[in-house]
């Protein structure tokens, strides 16, 4: 379990984390591909989701490399992996909050112009701040081998840094804490605004008639608004727990179950976003099913054309074709 200040990462934990990274990699890739393929889906909120998916994609790749290697020294590849995962993970926090801020301004403040004008600011903050922090940490030698004390095989803040707690906060934890506070507040305000709007329209429903399909869409949107902050907190809380246990000097941070949950949580954001915003979004799910069905249909048609007898040439008469078959049979009999 533990050897001094070193947390042992077992093979079972490696396999689970690598599988989680693979799911997140595929999920993030699917979000990006659907945005590229279908131009009518290129709305601003989904564009922001793509930027978040790029961060999650980088996180999944860097975490997978770290979990596969399970570093034990301050090697060059350890520092490179730690720098990439630090940048991507911190950027993911910023983009997650940016999406919530955009939806709040767009829905609650009812100002699409203001919301769209924030996109440039989101880019400057969500890419610029993590990049500046990562460059500073690498330049000062703060990124390196951390003995898996608050990681699962990958590198983060070096265990040799005297001010490692400060740099743990700067390279992730302080932004994680801010997301814990910001996301629930923003999504509660959005849900409250939507609820009030629906209540105000309730008196007109007998006139407008029943709209079961739109009601199902709004219900799904309401569920997503509830799940977004909950899923974020559930996935990230295990990393926070291990960080707090590290500050308290408790060896409980090295428990295999807690280490496994930490590994799954830190590497599953891309998969969770794919489930919510691709697989559980009916228009996109329908298109994906149609694309898969078309591929299967084309495959069946190709198989059928391969097994079917040769077709007649243009202008060739059916009777001539039949006579040729009869002649060939006679020759065979002879």
From TrEMBL:
Region (Disordered), start-end ranges: 309-334
Report the PROSITE patterns cross-referenced here. G_PROTEIN_RECEP_F1_2, G_PROTEIN_RECEP_F2_4
- Which processes are annotated in GO (biological process)? adenylate cyclase-activating G protein-coupled receptor signaling pathway; cell surface receptor signaling pathway
User: Could you tell me where the Basic and acidic residues compositional bias lies?
Assistant: 320-334
Tell whether Manganese is among the UniProt keywords.
no
The protein's predominant localisation is membrane
Q: Key word Membrane present in the record? A: yes
InterPro entries found in the cross-reference section? GCR1-cAMP_receptor, GPCR_2-like_7TM, GPCR_2_secretin-like, GPCR_cAMP, GPCR_Rhodpsn_7TM
Q: Where is the G-protein coupled receptors family 2 profile domain?
A: 13-170
| Keywords assigned | Membrane, Transmembrane, Transmembrane helix
Where's the G-protein coupled receptors family 1 profile domain? 27-277
Q: Which residues cross the membrane?
A: 15-36, 48-71, 83-106, 118-145, 165-190, 225-248
Subcellular localization, as worded in the UniProt entry = Membrane
Question: GO cellular component annotations, sorted alphabetically?
Answer: plasma membrane
Membrane disposition: Multi-pass membrane protein
Which named protein is this? G protein-coupled receptor 157
Q: Which organism is it from?
A: Sparus aurata
